[in-house]
Amino acid sequence: MGRILLIMINIYFYLLFLAASVIVIPLLSLFIFFLSFFVSRRIVMKRFRRCISWYGILMTSVTFPFIRIKYEDHSGGVSDRSYIFVCNHRAASDAFLMCVLPLEAVQVVNIWPFRIPVLGRFARMAEYLDIRNMTPEDFNEKATVLLDEGASIIFFPEGTRSGNKEVGPFHGSAFRLALNSKAPIVPLCISGNENIPPRGSFLLHPGMIRVRRLRAILWEEYKDTSVFSLKNKVREIINKELSLMECKA
Fold first, then answer.
1. Is position 60 within any domain?
2. Does the residue 54 lie in any domain?
3. For the chain, how many structural domains are there in total?
4. What is the DSSP string of 125-184?
5. pLDDT tens-digit readout, 153-175
6. Contact assessment for residue 241 and residue 212, using Cβ atoms and an 8 Å cutoff
7. What pTM did the predictor assign?
């Protein structure tokens, strides 16, 4: 695709993104504000986190038809419980892709998303976890409370986006939390997003993004595993599934 055409498409994306945000964010904020007078804080937080997902769905839809997102549920049946999602991380857009998950969720992030105007404020209000500025003890305590309340937690254990098709080494935080909380671990594979946008650029390239949810790994299956072995096992599952997804692409 020619550079000029790519820039024009991105101008279209970002203008729609800004216009939709100006309308949708105040409306969702008002909805949550009025809801808080009638229901408990727990229900408000649940609705608030789902509103963030709805916002993500709207924001990703403005890229259609140039960028298509396909959610593939290979979980073999989903129960109404909280999970620890473990995802590979190729692009800055990955956080928006989590809107495809049909449940209440909190993301684990580095500090930079909290610095984004407006969106960073909403992330803090939704109790997203800033792993850089929390002690391991505080992180595990807060994350365990969220899981007990019914919220799922989403990790990108590579810590930073790879910018290519390689899956980097995993950090151990997600897996220490799993061993402490006994929550099921769900591998989540994201394919086709390495240029949406490329690392070091804000230009979104057209393409198909696939988000594939795999079967949950239950506590009974990993309870006798070390953090080191567990993180490598999950990384291997994701790596293998990505290879299958991209062979068939």
1. no
2. no
3. 1
4. HTT-EEGGGS-HHHHHHHHHHHHHHT-EEEE-TTSS--SSSPPPPPPSHHHHHHHHH-PP
5. 999 999 877 666 789 999 999 99
6. yes
7. 0.91
